[in-house]
Amino acid sequence: MIKRIKHSLEYLIDKSSRNKTSEAEENLLNNFALSEYQNSNWDESSMGNSVEVSKNIYDGIQLRMVKKKTFNPYLKYMAAASILFLAGLGFFFKPDFAKEKQLSFKTSSDPKSIKLSDGSKIYLAANSSFQYPEKFEGDERKVVLLKGNAFFEIAKDKKHPFIITSGELKTRVVGTSFHIQMSKSKCEVIVVTGKVNVTSKGQSVDLVPNEEALFESQKLTKQMADKSFLVNWYNTDVTLDQTTLKHVITILQYKYGVSFQYDNEQVLATPLTVFIKKDAALENVLEQINYITNLKFKVYGEIVKVD
């Protein structure tokens, strides 16, 4: 309904500026503009001085009308009323006055967590970056995962959907928990609780617990999730019992934001049981793996190598 009003008003104002309106359309537009102008409230603390704003708009329109040799005496009211009306509905001018203050949250070598203004909690993996507003405004709660991986525990609010942009993906939820894992070649969304909608480039999938959305090579697909990802292992002790080294490495890559390099891929099939404490440093976990497997993993910045 609001969009229809907005588009109709834009259409009539544009048509009037080109002297294409009928007498009935012009009367409708003039009556509406005058009524809105007389009845509208202006919040000077967020929108500025009403007289100055109206004058600037009016002077600009008047200048253009003079160039075209035409002038409508109601344009002053139309300009001011349009600003007031559309600002009240949240269109055009209001965002310029009431932008959300954006903050950044980054991690280095260790995972960390942050609580947002709505009560949602974000567990950010090591070597990751996240952007969020100081306080949520408007109809949607929008944040951006700029780099790396995160686990989201979103506070329920049906009236204000939570939307996460991660690369070319948009993940839309109301209240749920899930992982988002980004790399240069792909992005994954893994649902632990609740329902999630993931979209990209005209593609869309709906997910429930134990399901994963994979965006790779410009294609969005849905598949069953690895059971190891169905917990918040950023903030939970995890035991990987009788699994493979490949599986352990996958978890470590996401939790600590590192990549592994090895010459012999056969080592990935090595069986082992590993306990990963929620606040353990990567070096401590690697010492445990080295002891079990007799391998020698060493950290070089964001790269882990087998020497």
From TrEMBL:
Gene3D superfamilies noted in UniProt: 2.60.120.1440, 3.55.50.30
Keyword set, alphabetical order: Membrane, Transmembrane, Transmembrane helix
Domain of life: Bacteria
Sequence ranges assigned to domain Protein FecR C-terminal in this UniProt record: 239-304
Record bears the keyword Transcription: no
Coiled coil: none
InterPro entries per the UniProt record, alphabetical: FecR, FecR_C, Ferrdict_sens_TM
Residues of the signal peptide: none
Transmembrane segments: 74-93
Gene Ontology molecular function terms on file: sigma factor antagonist activity
Domain FecR protein: 112-197
Mitochondrion in keyword set: no
Protein name: FecR family protein
Originating organism: Flavobacterium panici
